[in-house]
Write a structure and sequence with these properties.
Elements lengths: L5 E4 L9 H16 L3 E4 L13 H12 L5 E2 L12 H4 L4 H11 L3 E4 L3 H13 L23 H9 L5 E4 L6 E6 L3 E6 L7 E3 L7 H11 L4 E5 L6 H10 L8 E5 L2 E2 L9 H4 L27 H9 L14 H7 L10 E2 L2 H14 L2 H14 L6 H11 L8 H6 L11 H7 L4 H13 L6 H15 L4 H9 L7 H8 L1 H13 L2
Parallel strand pairs: 1-2, 2-3, 9-10, 11-12
Antiparallel strand pairs: 4-5, 5-8, 6-7
Helix pairs in contact: 1-11, 10-12, 13-14, 17-18, 17-21, 18-20, 19-21
Bound molecules: glutamic acid (GLU).
């Protein structure tokens, strides 16, 4: 019988979530949804030296903002396999029990080497021109461990509480094969794998042991994670084998890297950063707070849509998908092996598509705080009409201001390029005629403005519309001219035109 689908997102609380991390969470979530399974959040906090205060809360808030919520796990409610934080799971004694099993069966051993011993080994190997010095089947023979020391000495050292770690005993030359849902069969020779530390000297398990114990105990069916874990997978395969748990092992899926738009190299940290907390939240290790997707004005739906297509697509040309559609279409087998290029410009386009789906009222409400901050007080209908007019020009709500502030404020200058090129000795007369015609319009509608403009043209000849735009708004481009004049209002348009002309 197929196992019930149970997947986990297992971040370490070592900082804010990166784009790649959120994508890992998303693919797990979509896979669980597609198969009616469970999605679990497990916090892997066994490395106390890398612990960052606030990172766990950050991860939870990020998942909530994206609306990819686990149905079990830290911050999302207990299930049958609590606790979900590895530091708390350690108290259950499970990691040590599994490590002891491996020691008892001869597949793991105690190592008493000091930092200085390890350092000396590295130096020795480097001097001998060994490319990747590691603690392995060959080098362990010259080190202080329960495989080289006499049994009674090992007992004595342990009894005396001598600092030690537990290492996996990796065979010298053995083929390790495993199947990855995304990559197919992978074969690695065990000589490439080091004797990984399983339990550290502080008694804490390493990631390698802890995640295996937890995946087993939590009945995880699929381990879906970033490509950076692929090199450790052979060691994990050995651990399952030595524990006699090969049949319980989750299926593996290693997701591709996210690359820069030009495809050369992993995406930059800044680009990939994804803060959900307000800007005042600062990673204690960073000199300045960074701006993330939420603060940049991305909608969570757009962000999810962008991430879903980084390394996967349903095989059609369609690009806009709700999370429900994604869950219905998602197939792990269709995730690509090669790195996924992230294009920040395309990301903006996605947000724009979602912005256009909002009602004018929703946009006006979202834009209201910006106006308030600028000390501008206009009624809701006006702001709504403004949003209707300008929304084709923006990718984000905050861009409404830059794109259309002239609707609320008189221009302080006039586009120099346009003025130099187009303003001439006849312009003053022409625009005075426009003013005269505009003055006679009683119902300031788009239609009447258009008509009045054409009346003026009948009197003075062709009128440059861009010049008219610059006189009223100061800038060379923007939404439909007459629609905008209608919105700004008759009095204001006339006043602005008169001021502009008087300056010439
Ligand atoms: N704690 C690991 C990480 O932060 C989890 C890797 C896995 O999913 O197995 O990437």
């Amino acid at each position: 019988m197929e196992k019930r689908v149970r997947v986990r997102f297992a971040p370490s609380p070592t900082g804010g979530l990166h784009m790649g991390g959120v994508r890992t969470a998303l693919f797990n979530y979509l896979f669980a949804k597609k198969h009616g399974g469970d999605f679990i959040l497990r916090i892997e906090d066994t490395d106390q030296t890398r612990f960052v205060q606030g990172a766990e809360e950050y991860i939870i808030a990020a998942l909530k903002w994206c609306r990819i919520e686990p149905n079990e796990g830290v911050g999302f409610g207990d299930g049958p396999h609590k606790p979900y934080r590895q530091s708390e799971r350690k108290e259950l004694g499970i990691y040590k029990t599994y490590a002891d099993k491996l020691i008892a069966s001869g597949h793991a051993y105690y190592a008493f080497d000091t930092e200085a011993d390890l350092d000396a080994m590295r130096k020795r190997l480097e001097a001998a021109k060994v490319v990747a010095p590691q603690y392995n089947a060959v080098t362990r023979q010259n080190m202080h461990n329960s495989l080289t020391l006499p049994e009674d000495e090992v007992k004595k050292l342990l009894a005396a509480g001598t600092k030690h770690v537990v290492r996996l005993k990796v065979p010298r030359n053995e083929e390790i094969r495993f199947n990855d849902i995304i990559r197919g069969w992978v074969t690695v020779n065990s000589s490439q794998v080091d004797d990984k530390v399983l339990l550290k000297s502080d008694g804490m398990p390493t990631y390698h042991l802890a995640h295996i114990v937890d995946d087993i105990e939590m009945k995880i069916s699929h381990a879906v994670r970033g490509e950076e874990w692929l090199p450790s997978a052979p060691a994990h395969i050995l651990i399952y084998k030595y524990l006699g748990l090969e049949n319980e092992m989750p299926k593996l899926a290693h997701l591709p890297l996210i690359l820069n738009p030009d495809g050369n190299g992993k995406i930059s940290k800044r680009e990939a950063r994804f803060p959900v907390f307000p800007l005042s939240w600062q990673d204690p290790r960073e000199a300045t707070p960074y701006i993330g997707y939420k603060e940049s004005g991305y909608y969570p739906e757009a962000f999810i849509n962008i991430l879903a297509l980084l390394g996967w697509n349903p095989g059609t040309n369609e690009e806009i998908f709700s999370v429900e559609q994604l869950a219905a279409l998602f197939e792990m087998e269709k995730v690509h092996k090669s790195g996924a290029k992230f294009d920040p410009e395309k990301a903006k386009w996605f947000n724009q598509q979602y912005l256009r789906k909002k009602t004018d009222k929703e946009l006006a409400e979202a834009f209201a705080p910006v106006l308030k901050e600028k000390g501008i007080n206009r009624d809701a209908d006006f702001v709504e009409a403004f949003c209707r007019l300008v929304k084709e020009k923006v990718h984000f709500v905050h861009e409404f201001w830059e794109q259309g502030k002239y609707v609320f404020e008189s221009p302080t200058g006039y586009d120099e390029k346009v003025m130099t090129k187009k303003w001439n000795e006849k312009s003053k007369e022409i625009f005075t005629a426009v003013i005269t015609n505009f003055k006679t319009v009683s119902d300031w509608s788009i239609e009447n403005i258009t008509k009045s403009f054409h009346d003026a043209e009948a009197q003075v000849g062709k009128i440059d519309m861009q010049l008219l735009r610059v006189l009223v708004t100061g800038v060379a481009g923007g939404p439909q001219l007459f629609d905008m004049l209608a919105l700004i209002g008759k009095e204001e348009v006339l006043k602005r035109m008169e001021i502009a002309i008087s300056k010439k």
